[in-house]
Amino acid sequence: MSLRLLCARLGSFFFSLKTSQRSVPFINRMATAVIYVVCIVFYVIFGTNYWFDLNAGGTSTAAFLLSFVGLVTLALIVLWTTRRLELARIFIGLCVVLVIVGQMIDGGGVFGLGVLYLMFGFSVAYLLFGLKLTVFFIFLYLGALFLRLKFGSFPPTSIYNTPGVVNRMLVVLSVAAILQTTICICTEVIIQNLVRLAFFDRVTALPNRYKITSLLQERIQYYQRKKFLTSIVTIKTVNLNKINSMLGNTLADQLLASIGKRLKNYSNGTVAAGRWSSSVFVLIVNLHEKSALERYSTELLQLLSRPYLISGRVVSVFFNVSVSRYPEDAQTAEELVNNSISLLERSISQPGNISFYNKDIQCYQAKLFSLLDELNNADFDQDFYLVYQPKIRVSDKICMGAEVLLRWNNPKRGEIPPGEFIPIAEQSGLMHAISRWVIKRSFSDIAAMAEQAPEIICNQTFAINLSVIDLRDKDFILFLEDLQQHYCINASSIEFEITEGIMLDDDPRIAENIEKLLALKFRIAIDDFGTGYSNLAYLQRLRVHNLKIDRSFITSMFIKNNVDDAVLIDAIIAMSKSLKLQITAEGVETSAQFDYLLGKGCDLVQGFLFSKGLRPDDYLGYCRIVPNEQK
User: Fold this and answer.
1) DSSP label at residue 162
2) The CATH fold of domain 209-357
C-alpha cells in the first residue's frame, strides 16, 4: 500500500463525518481536529497530573481526572462509531462541566494551577460549541472560580495561600474572560461571513449549488438509514434573459431576490430551497407520491407566477418545473439534480409546464449529447448533402421547381432525420454555419443544373429554408449578394421559406433583412402556415408570395377524418386567392388528397405521391421524364 493511499484512508477514518443541515464541512473538520488535540494533550499530561495530585493528597482531583479521561474516551468512541460530531460534542461538553465542578470543589488542585487550564483555551472550544455555548461556559467558569477564590480553604501547597495572589488572579481571570469572549465574537463574525460567501447565493440569500448538494446528500443518507423518501423540485425561469436585457442587472437582481423570498417563505413540505444556477432553483421536499408532488408543484408555480413589483414596474416571469425522485430516478445528489435540469431543457419552449423525470428521458439525453458531439465533428462536405423535392403544379402536373432539403449521412448511424439534428444544431449554435453551407451548396447545385439543362431550370423556383439566425445576421444580405454574383443566379428563382414565429419576432433586423430580400427580388414563402400565429397583417405588409399548408393538416384531414382541418384548409386557400398569393400543400401522398386540393384550387403540391427528395442528377432525370414548363 502506497503512503498516499494510507494517508487517504487514515484521513477518511479520522475525519469522515455525517453532515447535518446546519453544518459547515470546514468547521466540522476543525472541530474534529480540536477533539483529537484535546484527547492527545490530555492523555499525554494525564499520567503526570494524576500522580502528583494523588501523592499530594488530592484524591478528589484524581477522581475528577479519571472521570475526565473516561468522558474523553467515550467521545472518541461515539465519534468513530456514529460519525456524528453532535454526539461527540455532548461528551466533550460534559468534560467542560466536570472541570468547572472540579475547580469549584478543589480550588484548582493541590497546586492551584488548574484554574488556568480552560480559561485560555475557550477560543479553541468555540469551534466545538459555537459562540453562545462557549460564552456561557466562559462566564460560568469565571463565576464559579470567583466564588471559589473568595471562599478560600485551599490545600496547603496551593499558591492561593500566598497573600495578594487571589486578587491578582481575579484580575487575570476577568481580563482573560473579556479577551476570550472578544476572540470568540470576532471568530464568529469572520466564519459567518465566510460561510455566507461559500455556501449562500449573494443575490437571493438562498443556499447555493454546493450547499444544496450537501443538504441533498444528507437527505439521501437519511433515506439509507430510515428509508424516508425524498424528492427534488427544480424550477427554471424561462424569460430571465429577456428581463435582464430589459431591466438591467440591478433590477434583475431585485427580481431574483423577490423570487428567492417567495421560495424561502413557501414551506409546504419544503426541506430546503436553493439557487442552483443563474436561472435554476432547486427545492428539496419531503414528498414522494406523484399526486402530492404535482399538487405541490402546481401551488408553487402559481405562487411564483404572480407578477412582481420591481422599482414601480410590474414584471411577469414564466417558469417551468421538473420533478425527480430518490431513489427511482438517481442514486446520487448530483445525478438527481442533473436529471431534473435535463428534463427542463426539453420543455423550455412551454412556460408553465410541470414534468416528471423518467429513465427514457435519460436515454434520450444521452443520444442528444452523442449526436451533438458527432454534429460538432461532422465534415459538412462529406457528411451533409442536399435533396430536391419536386413541387408540382396542380392544374397540369408540371414540375415548377423544388424545395431544398438537408440530409445528414452520419458515418456511425447512417441517415439521421432532420427533425432530430436540426433542433440540436439550433440550440448548440451550429445552425448558422449549417445554414450558410446549405444556401451556398444550393446556389452551386442550381447553377450546375442550369448549365446542364437550362431549358428545364430557367422557369423553376427553388425553395430554401431560412432560420431566425440568418435573418438576425447583419452580414446575411451581403453574403447572398456575393453568392448571387458568383453563381449568376436569378433572384426570382429563389424562394426563401420562413416560419410564422419569425414574423412575430420584434427584432428590427429581421424585418429589415426581409425587406432587403424583397428589394433584391427574392421570393418569400411562409412555411407551415396555420400552425402558429396566423396573421393577415404581416402577409400584406411584407408582400409574401407563397403560403405553405403544413403537412399535418393534410394528414389529419384524410387519415383522421378531421373536419376542422378541412375547414381550415379551405379557409387558407380562399384567403390566399383573395390576397393573390400562391398556395402550396406539403405532404401529399394519396390521389384522394391531390384530387381534393385540385378541387379547392390549390396551386402547388409536394409529397411522396409524386417524388421524394432527389439528388441533383436524379432531379434533372425526374424533370426530363415528367412534364415541365420550358421556354
Assistant:
1) S
2) Alpha-Beta Plaits (3.30.70)
